[in-house]
Amino acid sequence: MKQLHLAKVHRSLSAQMVPFAGWEMPLQYSGIVGEHMAVREAVGLFDISHMGEISVRGPMALDFLQRVTTNDISKLMVKEAHYSTVLNERGGTKDDIFTYRLGEQDYMVVVNAANADKIFEWFKSQAEGDVEIENITMSTVMLAPQGSKAQAVLQKLTDFDLGTLGRFRAGFIEVAGMEVLVSRSGYTGEDGFEIYLMGEPQSKPMRGEKLWNELLRAGLEFGIKPCGLGARDSLRIEAGYVLYGHELTEEITPLEARIGFVVKFDKGDFIGREPLLEQKGGGLSRVRVGLRMRERGVPREGYGILADGEVVGRVTSGVLSPLLGVGIAMGYAPPEIETAREVAIEIHGKPRAAELVRPPFYDTAKFGFGRKQVG
Amino acid sequence: MKVGEHEILEGLYYTRSHEWIKFEGNLARVGVTDYAQKQLGDVVYVELPEIGKSVKQTTEPKTKEMELGAVESIKAVSAVYSPLSGTVKETNQVLQDRPELINTSPYSEGWICVLEPSNIEGERGSLLSPDAYATFLKTLG
To answer: How far is B122 from chain A (nearest CA, A)?
Structure first.
């Protein structure tokens, strides 16, 4: 099993460690609900160094990425990033990714841990001409301070004015005396940053440990909490973000997942374009839906979704929302479910009333990166 | 008594699936142990069994007829298995609004239900004493 650079630090914080996507990862430190609420109400810190980073460089890097990803790479300015997908020839999703343009011919693709080797091999098999593809996952520490106070925390450690860094913008800046790539992005629905510390040796992760400790110390006054995968999952479900292996698989297209905004048909050819165009023309037989319970119960992956008493689909992710105190879920169902009189989820063998909701599940005026500033 | 950081109360019986049983006259109160609640983490929901449900004492392989609802954390659903055959007479309605009582008071306020056992003499022998449960917990490491 792969070990995080900061494995020792997490153990010293009494993290409960669990296997995830080939890595031993912190599931929780003080408790999932408290960690979740720290992020929604102030700030939390995640070690997500299991995420894969693939460097794509060279004169043909742009052409290559246009072909193997669905979003329009030509629109990316240097120091910008966008969300995208990598598709198979059938239009199914090989991975959902975040692509940075770090220099004129220098890109970094951030992939899911479970797919890192698969995408690296796929990229190499698809590469033609002058493009250099390198997997830099094992030498990269990725830390994510997330929450409305994340900027206040990080600002204490840098002279760079973070107020000038927009969402999905990134730059190499000095934090706690170290040069890191800082991006205003995340997977919690809140404002926050993803910090990449590159070239960090596994055996002596002194800079990584320093970065983690300095962030926790700077966050003390805001009640920062170290957060594990448990809170990461409940936060992303509340925000309505898809997770590969649940809402996305090799058999599910981005159109079905309702993330069609990452598919730019007019940019030219790309792998998976034809089947997606066909699907777009023919209509979708299933789509991702959001569900909020109107009765007690916690929806879980695999539970049946009922429309007027008939099972029409399955839950792919569900949780008792720590923020709302009710069960929330995502799943797949035929689009006609929108017109059903009664929607329910089968929980412990009984149908429980639910309603269709378009995520995020929380009030976006009060929570999330778009919240109205207070004071 | 304590095994590691796990509390075990005298005067109760236990199961290998981490339920406790307290005999009260001809009735049996059932909950989950301190070990079970620590394994689960923050309990966010308790699915209570229906009053009047008849259950069987739990044996392998486990079936739905042996379940007394479930205790759920953010990440996991953990069925509560009936330590005895019988009928559900009462359930702890307070848990519907305060599921965290399973964490804060597993042996008292966090009780789950009261059973009327149907074969107490025949089944009692398969329950664990506090000492036997302590020995069992030590094997789990």
So the answer is: 30
pLDDT digits (tens, 9 = 90+) for A237-283: 999 999 999 999 999 999 999 999 999 999 999 999 999 999 999 99
8 Å CB contact of A33 and B69: no
Does A210 score more than 90 pLDDT? yes
Q: Give me the domain span that covers residue A289.
A: 285-375
Of B20, B30, B42, whose CA–CA distance to A298 is shortest?
Answer: B42
Which residues of chain B does A319 touch, with a Cβ-Cβ cutoff of 8 Å? 74
Q: Where are the domains of chain B?
A: 2-128
Q: Which amino acid is at A10?
A: H
Mean pLDDT of chain A: 97
Q: What percent of chain A has pLDDT over 90?
A: 97
**Distant-in-sequence, close-in-space partners of A175: CB < 8 Å, separation ≥ 6:** A154, A157, A158, A182, A195, A211, A214
CATH number where A188 lies: 3.30.1360.120
Q: Does residue A235 share a domain with residue A372?
A: no
Out of A32, A300, A347, name the one closest to residue B42 (CB): A32
Whether B45 and A28 lie within 8 Å, measured CB to CB? no
Task: Tell me A68's DSSP state.
Answer: H
* Residue found under tokens 């777009």: A280
How many Å is the Cα radius of gyration of chain B? Answer: 14
Rounded to two decimals, the ipTM of the complex is: 0.82
Q: Do A230 and B69 count as a contact with CB atoms less than 8 A apart?
A: no
Contacts of A33 in chain B (CB under 8 A): 42, 44, 74
User: What does CATH list as the number for B2-128?
Assistant: 2.40.50.100
- Count how many domains chain A has: 2
